[in-house]
Amino acid sequence: MLTSSIRKYLNKGGNAMNKDIQKEENRFFMNDDEGNMIAEITYIPSGDSVITIDHTYVSESLRGQGVAGKLLESVVQEARIKGYKIVPACSYAKAVFDRKSEYQDLLAK
């Protein structure tokens, strides 16, 4: 079920890939033009230099457009900059980490 704001966004030709990824403490997210959250990835500190990705959400109307991958890449970039390791606990993050060899160096042991 689409909210009216997402429906308006899509009817205006909105494309999630043109939206800016924003950052708040322990999450990256995207909002539609009306300020409603349409996608997010969250993580929690799990030690001195480990974070656990615990949740990924993309509005049903935006799935299949690479939005979750862009959000995950934002977390990966931040982890690399800060020297963190990652525990991919949510099903999406786990599947991507299992598939992408370039993320293996970030896996917490």
Automatic annotation (TrEMBL):
<dbReference type="InterPro" id="IPR031165">
    <property type="entry name" value="GNAT_YJDJ"/>
</dbReference>
<feature type="domain" description="N-acetyltransferase">
    <location>
        <begin position="20"/>
        <end position="108"/>
    </location>
</feature>
<keyword id="KW-0808">Transferase</keyword>
<dbReference type="GO" id="GO:0016746">
    <property type="term" value="F:acyltransferase activity"/>
</dbReference>
<dbReference type="InterPro" id="IPR000182">
    <property type="entry name" value="GNAT_dom"/>
</dbReference>
<protein>
    <submittedName>
        <fullName>GNAT family N-acetyltransferase</fullName>
        <ecNumber>2.3.1.-</ecNumber>
    </submittedName>
</protein>
<dbReference type="InterPro" id="IPR016181">
    <property type="entry name" value="Acyl_CoA_acyltransferase"/>
</dbReference>
<keyword id="KW-0012">Acyltransferase</keyword>
<feature type="domain" description="N-acetyltransferase">
    <location>
        <begin position="1"/>
        <end position="109"/>
    </location>
</feature>
<dbReference type="Pfam" id="PF14542">
    <property type="entry name" value="Acetyltransf_CG"/>
</dbReference>
<dbReference type="InterPro" id="IPR045057">
    <property type="entry name" value="Gcn5-rel_NAT"/>
</dbReference>
